């Protein structure tokens, strides 16, 4: 059976208003079974079930955190696994999505990188994360208004499928999201940044910089051997010039490695003239990590130095640490507390 989530709303099976009905059931009602689409003729529902599938998962496991966030572990139809995180806030519902099984970037502070690269996710598998989370939470997929592509994987190394998924997120008959509420995070693949700028979808860009100098960055991010900071920032400046979208710079503070005052000053110098915001991220520990985080006092001092130099800065205290759902912790681990939602035996529904 073919994955129906690979299709844009105007490409869905049927004629005219039937396509609109199917899109409404998928993206507004969150149907995971064609039998639910009761305003379609019975024969059409049966035909759809024979040719198409909605779900991309054999199993969905949910691990609730004490802070209200939920880590989801998805078993794909080929048996491989990936993860996403649901983060409810008083005024919005956010999901952190994966674009790959594992990740080839290999960042030293990130548990996902330690897994290595499995494979790219399809556009359907990316979108299916939203639908599965909404189903488990008992909400419409369109109630999820914020998406961050910061889970497993490097989105710019799977850009074709990521862009395809984003187009359905933005489509008025799809998830009808605002581009300002979709953020794509990258370790810095210049070619991908240039392409993202040319696509001009209006989404936000976040750069995982983590060090302002090449020597330090190479110790943290293996891909930095190929892409120096200057080359990445040239691409980011092009992105800003083309889109006029402020760029977020993510910076995980690691004790004795990238948390020195001179590095804060160099970072401020690099960002001069660029509409940028720095997110300082405390290191979230994981078993076997080769690095340790900067203590809270050091994080606050680094933030104050950036602010003194005129750089808009915030500290992103992560959610979901107790279930391995925080930034840098996604590693297909299964905490002790578990609820799970197995899908129907008929994977075509």
TrEMBL record:
It is found in: Cytoplasm. GO terms for biological process: rRNA base methylation; tRNA methylation. Binds 1 [4Fe-4S] cluster. The cluster is coordinated with 3 cysteines and an exchangeable S-adenosyl-L-methionine. Reaction proceeds by a ping-pong mechanism involving intermediate methylation of a conserved cysteine residue. This is Probable dual-specificity RNA methyltransferase RlmN. Specifically methylates position 2 of adenine 2503 in 23S rRNA and position 2 of adenine 37 in tRNAs. GO terms for molecular function: 4 iron, 4 sulfur cluster binding; metal ion binding; rRNA (adenine(2503)-C2-)-methyltransferase activity; rRNA binding; tRNA (adenine(37)-C2)-methyltransferase activity; tRNA binding. It catalyses: adenosine(37) in tRNA + 2 reduced [2Fe-2S]-[ferredoxin] + 2 S-adenosyl-L-methionine = 2-methyladenosine(37) in tRNA + 5'-deoxyadenosine + L-methionine + 2 oxidized [2Fe-2S]-[ferredoxin] + S-adenosyl-L-homocysteine; adenosine(2503) in 23S rRNA + 2 reduced [2Fe-2S]-[ferredoxin] + 2 S-adenosyl-L-methionine = 2-methyladenosine(2503) in 23S rRNA + 5'-deoxyadenosine + L-methionine + 2 oxidized [2Fe-2S]-[ferredoxin] + S-adenosyl-L-homocysteine. Keywords: 4Fe-4S, Cytoplasm, Disulfide bond, Iron, Iron-sulfur, Metal-binding, Methyltransferase, rRNA processing, S-adenosyl-L-methionine, Transferase, tRNA processing. It comes from the Bacteria. It is an enzyme of class 2 (transferase).
